[in-house]
Design brief:
The chain has no helices and eleven strands. By secondary structure, the chain is mostly beta strands. A hairpin with a 6-residue loop joins β5 and β6. It starts with a strand and ends with a strand.
Length: 126
């Protein structure tokens, strides 16, 4: 298990940018694929983005592709979510998660992930 702490959320206007950070404890950070999920008001939690252990392959939900960028810095044990051109529909609690190295379950699926942060609120007003 790994402890995850998100930061960087806040209230912004439509069109603005935010960068979320997720700091991980432990020395094994680089062994986990990492993901970002979000839960919008009244909705179930959904996949946003994921990055493989090496950092050279990323995955995005269609709703954020081209606007959001996931990255990781293994030296800092941190994964980031750069969010540009924010829309009111991006309003949600954002969670980072550490995933299993097993390839049997898609990185798009919550069941791939074994450790979750507490979440950070992002509110986008029009």
């Amino acid at each position: 298990q790994v402890q995850l702490v998100e930061s960087g959320g806040g209230s912004v206007q439509a069109g603005d940018s935010l960068r979320l950070s997720c700091s991980a404890s432990g020395r094994t950070f680089s062994t986990y694929p990492m993901g970002w999920f979000r839960q919008r008001p009244g909705k179930e939690r959904e996949f946003v983005a994921a990055i493989v252990r090496s950092g050279d392959i990323t995955y995005y939900a269609a709703s954020v592709k081209g606007r959001f960028t996931i990255s990781r810095d293994s030296a800092k044990n941190t994964v980031y979510l750069q969010m540009n051109s924010l829309k009111p529909e991006d309003t949600a609690v954002y969670y980072c998660a550490a995933g299993s190295t097993s390839p049997g379950v898609s990185l798009y699926s919550e069941s791939r992930y074994h450790s979750w942060g507490q979440g950070t609120q992002v509110t986008v007003s029009s």
